[in-house]
Amino acid sequence: MTLNQQRKLKTILTGLFAWTVALVLFFPIFWMFITSFKTELQAISVPPSLFFEPTLDNFRVVQERSDYIHHAWNSVVTSFGSTIIALIIAIPAAYSMAFFPGKRTKDILLWMLSTKMLPAVGVLVPIYIICRDYGLLDTKTALVIIFTLMNLPIIVWMLFSYFKDLPKEILEAARMDGATPWDEVVKVVLPLSVGAISSTALLSIVLCWNEAFWSLNLTASDAAPLTAMIASYSSPEGLFWAKLSAASTLACAPIVIFGWFCQKQLVQGLTFGAVK
Amino acid sequence: MSYLTITDLQKHYDSYHALRGINLTITEGEFVVFVGPSGCGKSTLLRTIAGLESSTGGNIELDGRDITEVASSKRDLAMVFQSYALYPHMTVADNLSFALRLAKVSDAEIKEKVRSVSASLQLDALLERKPKELSGGQRQRVAIGRAIVRQPKVFLFDEPLSNLDAALRVQMRLELARLHKKLGTTMIYVTHDQVEAMTLADRVVILNAGQIEQVGTPLELYRQPNSRFVAEFIGTPKMNLIPANKIVRHEDNLAIDLLGQQIIFPVNRLKGPLPKSAIVGIRPEHMTLVQEGGDLSGRIELVEHLGSEAYAHLQLSSDQTIIIKAPARTALKDGQVVNIKIDMSEVILFNENDRVISVIPEEV
Fold it and tell me: Which residue stretches, if any, does this entry annotate as coiled coil (chain B) (predicted)?
């Protein structure tokens, strides 16, 4: 085999591997998507039918049984709301830790991450009681607070590692030019970090959007986001696969579309931030 | 009159003592260069003056105002960084005007200042470009322009030329010298390159291990170093240092034994008591080759021809080689034994603590 052929083979093999991984990852989503257009009977038939007459019945039923727009709005408010609040807290935190590290900065970062190691269910009872006592059960406020706290460590970590790679001299130059800490963050750090902040925000939004544990435990109907809506389709009356799939497809759709659009922005943002 | 006064400045990093009591006064309009080997504290000193590092003792006074605890942004100093540190997301024009916009200068005035600075640094055509679209030399000029446009009290330069290639470095060095002449603003410049220090400075501050080793004009440092460290640091090729283990006084002269050969040194040029041993320092250009007589003789090991001059490496003994400056087209051959005459008025003696124990006579 010549060197050229070896190289070609390598390209083909990596391509093949990438496609396999991509298909394995994509398959459940694809299956959910086509199941949502089947009848309940087709959905549980063995072997599964790949060719069938698609129906929109499930979507109609889902829309009749639960108010999709209501739940979608709850998801939007909680995920965007908590992400914005988390960013407002995390940006100054990451800035100070990245540019003015103290002796305990590493420890604080580790401690923040360690809060993610505790299973959420471990604090379910105290948080439930707090929410009950403050009248926060089934409110978007409760979810926004919980989501903010839940994602804060990850957001601080991501921003911290990005800020740390910004050349320190650029901030020092700004300081010499007469910039106050506020000017430094707003006029230098933030414009240079648009890409990093958008990708962090996107991750946080996705995590909130897909969050189910707290949504299920702290909300009933008023503040229930889409994840809670999906769950209502695995009810005591039995599983309705087709309807469940339809509900899930509806729940995923906005965030997938949003991510699709942001992807372009993100790529742009990331190359824009390139310093050298 | 003193403009910038540094008094007993200290800087500790945990257990590391980076600045050990720096005392220095700089007058208005002076071009002062901090030079020293890496780790000597020159950058730390500059950054402490800038306020980018906090001092742990002593104080800094600028134009009659104590700025030791003042934030960098309020010190009215401008700094040019080694990495240029341009704002990557701003155009050249925005980079130049950033400080003015922060200071809320009027748009018309900003426009005028940016125009005049960009004209003087030949940046006019580049104003709308982003830093990444500029060459190294252009970025350097933008960084300098960004400092000039503010008309600060003092310019601080932190090894500004070390990222440029050799030819451009020489050119920018010249531009900086011209700039200083034109603006007349006080400049403090950090470098590890002694040629930059010698050519740019009104006064050179040589730092070593967090302390000032010597302060003086370039020529003072060259001719009258205080210590062996300064003598070796300044000058290319280095000053020759030859140990002398036997020194005997004969009336008005000292007979100094250099590896079995004797040189005669006038006793009135000695500071302090007669030493038992010393290190004799002679610069390569203070020795000449002679046909007969002379003070020392040795065997030529190697001749380096530089075109404008030549350097002969002369073996005095098996483990002591000295360098002598020779005429450009010298006919010296390797292995040849030659005699050399030493210009005794330029010879320096160091004691075993590497301090100077001789006096250089005043130049006539």
Answer: none
